Amino acid sequence: MRENLTRWLYQAMRFQSGLPKTQRIESISKAAKPNKTEPNKNYTAEDPKPDHIPISADVKYISWLSLIYKLLFQKEHPSALSSFQEMMTSAEGKCVVVFLDYDGTLSPIVNDPDRAFMSDRMRSAVGDVAKLYPTSIISGRSRQKVYGFVKLDDIFYAGSHGMDIMGPAIQASSYDGKYQSKALDKKGNELTVFQPAQEFLPSIEKMLNELEETTSEINGALVEDNRFCISVHYRHVLQEDFGLLEKKVQALVAKYPGFHLTRGKKVLEIRPSIKWNKGDALVYLLETLGLTNSSDVLPIYIGDDRTDEDAFKVLKCRGQGYPIIVSTNPRDTLATYSLRDPSEVLSFLIRLARWGEPSAV
């Protein structure tokens, strides 16, 4: 769709002669060079010759294309704020269940991952939502680290992209019991801890030690222990040093066949190669809540990362609920609705809590 849109825009700006059908769009100044083997092909007296295209055309074209992309994105993934009433009309009489990512959703993306604090207003909004609906946070961070940021006891936490879940007390019968154990929260309430990647912990510890040593010579590289996965942040790494860092991480992963490398926002992540992701965590939590086969459940999942697409896919396949992407820029996504940033997430959660209050029904 995007390539067709690009071609249409390109032609609409009367530069169609510079864009071969088999070629992806490039900057106009490059794409518009005449083809020496086919001079004057498809030109008319009214068309501007490539050599005469003004330099400002590049800027105008890019700005226009960007605007069209944004308009298309907003049409395909409308704002969850402007669509709130329509969404909640479908939620009447159903059990709303809320799933949230953390970084980039409840807190802004920051230069120092250890300082990704959520605001007091956001904490209050999440707490108000959790009083009304079962609420879980599913993050790539370690479960303990996310809890340290959120500091709320009335929600469920899934860290390491769902490989470390502290959820409802009911154990899921369709999952291996050896990965489930009982635990108590700070209030003494019984919970179930589910960790399907337990056997990978010894290798993860070895990899952490190796990574900290091998990346210590690269300024700005930060290795983060996220319990069942390892994050290598390169937000502060010089561009000329990134290639070396990437090679070092890839070389380490190659030594451990049970792991694979994924990529996020300025981060390389090493994860166990098991069939488990945020979508699987969502399904597990729904089962422990007793809502797996319910037709009256309405899950809402809000996230900004590409790893959240696994959860969006689950909701799409179930034909239930609302996957909501948090993104300022247009991007490929399975989400149905969108929010631009954590401030809009805050507004959405406040409205969701108000909608669920007894007096609002």
Automatic annotation (TrEMBL):
Known role: Removes the phosphate from trehalose 6-phosphate to produce free trehalose. Trehalose accumulation in plant may improve abiotic stress tolerance.
Any one GO MF annotation of this record: trehalose-phosphatase activity
Name of the protein this chain belongs to: Trehalose 6-phosphate phosphatase
Reactions performed catalytically: alpha,alpha-trehalose 6-phosphate + H2O = alpha,alpha-trehalose + phosphate
Family note: Belongs to the trehalose phosphatase family.
GO terms of biological process kind: trehalose biosynthetic process
SUPFAM superfamilies in the record: HAD-like
InterPro entries: HAD-like_sf (IPR036412), HAD-SF_hydro_IIB (IPR006379), HAD_sf (IPR023214), OTSB-like (IPR044651), Trehalose_PPase (IPR003337)
Enzyme class: hydrolase
Cofactor(s) for this UniProt protein: a divalent metal cation
Pathway it works in: Glycan biosynthesis; trehalose biosynthesis
Record region (Disordered): 29-49
Basic and acidic residues composition-biased segments: 35-49
EC number: 3.1.3.12
Organism: Anisodus tanguticus
Keyword annotations from UniProtKB, A to Z: Hydrolase, Stress response
